[in-house]
Design goal:
The protein is an all-alpha fold and 73 residues long. The protein has four helices and no strands. α1 runs antiparallel to α2 and α1 crosses α4.
Length: 73
């Protein structure tokens, strides 16, 4: 595999996490007591602050989270 393939895969993983975060925030806006959404939020935020996220991208997780959160609200 070329370096570009690995970068595309890393980007896809991060993009999916962002989509999961957006979907989770939308669910919590409708039902703040959703246990599934609360768990997903915890999992996604944990991923954003993980070593794996840091290995996949140079993005600052807090900046990314804040930007996405502002766009969703």
């Amino acid at each position: 595999m070329t370096k570009e393939c690995y970068e595309n895969l890393a980007n896809a993983v991060v993009e999916q996490a962002v989509k999961d975060y957006v979907r989770t925030i939308q669910v919590l806006k409708r039902d703040k007591n959703s246990i599934d959404a609360q768990k997903m939020l915890k999992d996604v935020l944990s991923f954003f602050h993980s070593e794996w996220f840091t290995a996949l991208t140079d993005l600052d997780p807090d900046v990314l989270i804040n930007k996405v959160h502002k766009e969703v609200l």
